[in-house]
Amino acid sequence: MDCNRCDDAAVMHAAYSGAHLCEHHFRESVEKRVRRRVRRDDLVPKDASPENPQTWVIGLSGGKDSVVLTQILHETFAEDPRIELVGLTIHEGIEGYRDRSLEACVDLAAALEIRHEVVSYEEEFDIRMDEVVEEDPENMAACAYCGVFRRDLLSNYAEQLGADLMLTGHNLDDEAQTALMNVLEGDVSQVAKHFDASLGPLSEREEQDEFVPRAKPLRDIPEKEVALYAHLRDLPAHITECPHSSEAYRGEIQQLLYGLEENHPGTRHSILSGYEELAGIVAERYRGDEDGVELRECVECGSTTTRETCRKCSLLESIRAV
Q1: How many domains, in total, are found in the chain?
Q2: pLDDT in tens, 193-210
């Protein structure tokens, strides 16, 4: 099959749009959608200038998503003095797995000549995920522990690095899965939180001094297209599953969406579009609720939380008590 835009052979077919694209036009399409998302979400503020530069911290794991995001953002802003990119890698202490992906991060950062910071659970919390999984004091999935610790370090170090924006490589599949899970679980608070954390133009968001704003410029790109882009560009991405990955429910949702997308192309886009609209409505309700959740400082670490002791500190206390 030939490319719809030229006579070269197509390397991919997007059933949701009907497009057949060659390597050149496929790469161009991915880059265009990412840059369009940057514009739509007003990620570059109007007052950004060489005298008032913005620091964008990217959660760089070494996987295909964060590597592709970093590559495209670098090519977009490499000659723009208003934007400085910083890669932030979290080492969880998973033998073999994170060591190899860290090599990918180091290689990419060196090739792009961007600042790269590495922090670890061991240095920050005196734990390693391999040990946490073995002890499992809370009797829950490894991803539940890891997610809490990772989010805490990303947020804290984004602040320490003076970030104006925290960017993550969540793709369309990730976002559609999360949207469907939150709806099926009836988790209204997560719907509102998801909106405030990543959706909508920055210029329209309320001031939230407690948190560095987050953005997900890859959220319009299907996972398989991200993987294909990384392959065609021969990017140093470490593409493999975490050995402790055990999110069974998300896996079920993933398979459900695969089937729906195959039979009804465009399902993921429709879910995310509807979810964004729903999230905006829910977020407005929460903002106007005078009895809403009160934010406070954790008595242990001082981080912003809704309880006396934040979830991270509660988990660390359980782990250390074993």
Answers
A1: 2
A2: 665 555 455 545 444 556
